[in-house]
Design a protein that fits this description.
Number of strands: 0
Structural class: mainly alpha
Order of helices and strands: HHH
């Protein structure tokens, strides 16, 4: 059971890192003159765009603003909280 708890914590931490990468991606969209063919920017885009596209299908842009990222962050945060709670429950059951 301890292995399961550790795996859940690793997955939760992975979601936290992904949230930071997603934040960088959203902030970079504020700079329209960026060269997205740059390998670093292209990598960030290729990592985050499939996830964001799921939410872009749910919430269309309103007045030119893409609000789907807000829903994407909420979903990631909810996932992190669920995984953290389950992990703590598993740990509490061990001792």
């Amino acid at each position: 059971m301890e292995v399961l708890s550790q795996l859940l914590l690793v997955f939760s931490n992975t979601l936290q890192i992904y949230s930071l990468i997603l934040l960088v991606r959203v902030l970079l969209t504020w700079f329209p003159n960026l060269d997205w063919s740059n390998p670093v920017l292209s990598t960030v885009s290729s990592i985050t765009d499939p996830y964001l596209n799921v939410f872009r299908g749910l919430i269309p842009p309103i007045g030119g603003l893409d609000l789907s990222a807000i829903l994407a962050f909420l979903a990631l945060s909810f996932g992190q909280q669920i995984l953290g709670s389950i992990s703590m429950s598993v740990m509490a059951g061990l001792y």
